[in-house]
Each structure stands twice: as structure tokens, then as C-alpha cells.
Design brief:
- By secondary structure, this protein is mostly helical.
- The chain has one domain (3-67): Orthogonal Bundle (Arc Repressor Mutant, subunit A), CATH 1.10.10.
- Helices cover 46% and strands 10% of the residues.
- The chain contains three helices and two strands, in the order H-H-H-E-E.
- The chain has helices at residues 3-18, 25-32, 36-49, and strands at 56-59, 64-67.
- Strands 1-2 form a two-stranded antiparallel ribbon.
- The protein is globular, with a radius of gyration of 13 Å.
- The model has no long low-confidence stretch (mean pLDDT 89).
Length: 82
Amino acid sequence: MSFYETLITLERLAIIIERENTGCAKDIASKLQTSPRTVKNLLNQLRNLGGGDIDIRYCRKRNTYYYHPSVFVSFNFFNKKL
């Protein structure tokens, strides 16, 4: 996965976590078309984006990952034409 593809996938992951509609790692892998192991790596990368300040937890009762406390994660991309 290229750097750009990783950022896009991280953004998609951040959005589904924000919606608290992730399911388990296997469900996320299906949504993102990747492996469950890659999902776990992406979760760790997302946690570390804020200098390790982004707390992502999993609720077995609701079967979803969520931010604790609630945060807004934003990725801003721009494409400059040469």
C-alpha cells in the first residue's frame, strides 16, 4: 500500500470509528478491503497520529470501536496541478 493509499484508508477508518459503526476488526477489513492484521496496524497508526493522544477503544456490547473521549480526526488533502 502506498503512502497516499494508507492515508486514504486511515481517513476512511477514522470516519467509521467516528460513526461508531465498525464491527470487529474482521468487519472493518471487509469494509476497507484489507486484512484484519492490516486493520490492527492502521488502528495503531491512527492512535499515534495525535502523538499517542487518540484513545480508541472497543466495546464488545455494541461491537464497535470508538474514540474516548470523543474526538474529531480530520485529514486534509489537496492536489496542486503543475
